[in-house]
Amino acid sequence: GAVTHVHVRVTPLGDELAFAVANDNTEMRAVEQARREFATNVSHELKTPVGALSLLAETIEEGADDPEMVRQFARKIRKESRRLTKLIQEIIEISRLQGDDTVRDHQPVHLTEVVAEAIDGARLGAEQRRIEVSSSVSAEPVTMGDRDLLVMAVRNLVDNAVAYSEEGGKVTVALAEDDGVAAISVIDHGIGIDQKDQERIFERFYRTDPARSRQTGGTGLGLSIVKHVALQHAGTVEVWSQPNVGSTFTLRLQAQEEGMTE
Ligand code: ADP
């Protein structure tokens, strides 16, 4: 059958209005509305893991004489706590990224190092799922920006590629440069994303399958962080995906002219 390749571009005029210049009442109200929605979502998202923790503790209380059950529930508590910690960290990160008073580093950043560090960070999670993450470097572009934020963005993409692949799968991170633009592509052959979901996945807390995201320790904030990091660097992030074929996320950033940072 016909194959459609969908390309979603997220630009400063994307789905969220937090970046809108509030120069008229309608826009100001929309920004206000987006803030309120975020606050509502955050409290909802926090209540879920806290409720789970409380329930797990209650169950242990009731069956405290069975040591095997206690151990099993303690493990679940630890897993839920990890997710809660990640959620809190990401909420703080996203509030920071959206604040207009963000002070960012603006240094030359070697993207080969960013890719290597992101892969390194994702290694443990990948090994647990027997997924091989490799890199394919055809250029060594340098961009201006915040190294830590860029590593976090690429790491989020690699973590997702691992989480949404079958066990034993392969993930590739490709680094290239074309016409002064650096491109980092994270390629997986996993479950893919339905066309109708592709433009929504960059929204905060949007997941195509909340149960699966929860199972993998996801928070629904990863891609929204990637988008904001891209925006702060005047870059873009794009997705190409097909269900059951795989996904490719590409982060594009301005590359420095050669020799400028030597
Ligand atoms: P999560 O923490 O749930 O992974 P993200 O913001 O990182 O949140 O991603 C949002 C949603 O986009 C995910 O819940 C998942 O449905 C989908 N998604 C992201 N990356 C991939 C991928 N590589 N393959 C398939 N689906 C993905």
Walkthrough of the structure:
The chain is of the alpha+beta class and 262 residues long. The protein has helices spanning 25-62, 67-98, 111-128, 147-163, 195-198, 210-215, 222-232, and strands at 8-10, 107-110, 132-137, 142-145, 170-178, 181-188, 236-242, 246-254. The chain has a 6-stranded mixed beta sheet with strand order 1-7-8-6-5-3, with helices on one face. A two-stranded antiparallel ribbon has the order 2-4. Strand 5 and strand 6 (181-188) form a beta hairpin. The longest helix is centred in the N-terminal third of the chain and has 38 residues, at 25-62. The radius of gyration is 20 Å and the shape is globular. Mean pLDDT is 87; it is low at 1-7 and 11-23. The structure holds adenosine-5'-diphosphate.
Please render the helix and strand layout as text.
Blueprint: E1 8-10, H1 25-62, H2 67-98, E2 107-110, H3 111-128, E3 132-137, E4 142-145, H4 147-163, E5 170-178, E6 181-188, H5 195-198, H6 210-215, H7 222-232, E7 236-242, E8 246-254
Parallel strand pairs: 3-5
Antiparallel strand pairs: 1-7, 2-4, 5-6, 6-8, 7-8
Helix pairs in contact: 1-2, 2-7, 3-4, 4-7
This protein binds adenosine-5'-diphosphate.
Q: In what order do the strands lie side by side in the largest sheet? A: 1-7-8-6-5-3
**What is the tally of beta strands?**
8
Radius of gyration: 20 Å
Low-confidence stretches: 1-7, 11-23
What sort of overall outline do the alpha carbons produce when their principal axes are compared?
globular
Instruction: Bin the helical content.
Output: 40-55%
Terminal CA distance: 51 Å
Identify the bound ligands.
Answer: adenosine-5'-diphosphate
User: What is the mean predicted local confidence, pLDDT?
Assistant: 87
Derived from helix and strand composition plus strand pairing, the structural class reads alpha+beta
What is the string of helix and strand elements? EHHEHEEHEEHHHEE
Number of helices: 7
The main sheet comes to: 6 strands, mixed
Question: How much strand content do the residues show?
Answer: 15-25%
GO molecular function, one term: ATP binding
Main location: membrane
Subcellular location: Cell membrane
Organism: Demequina capsici
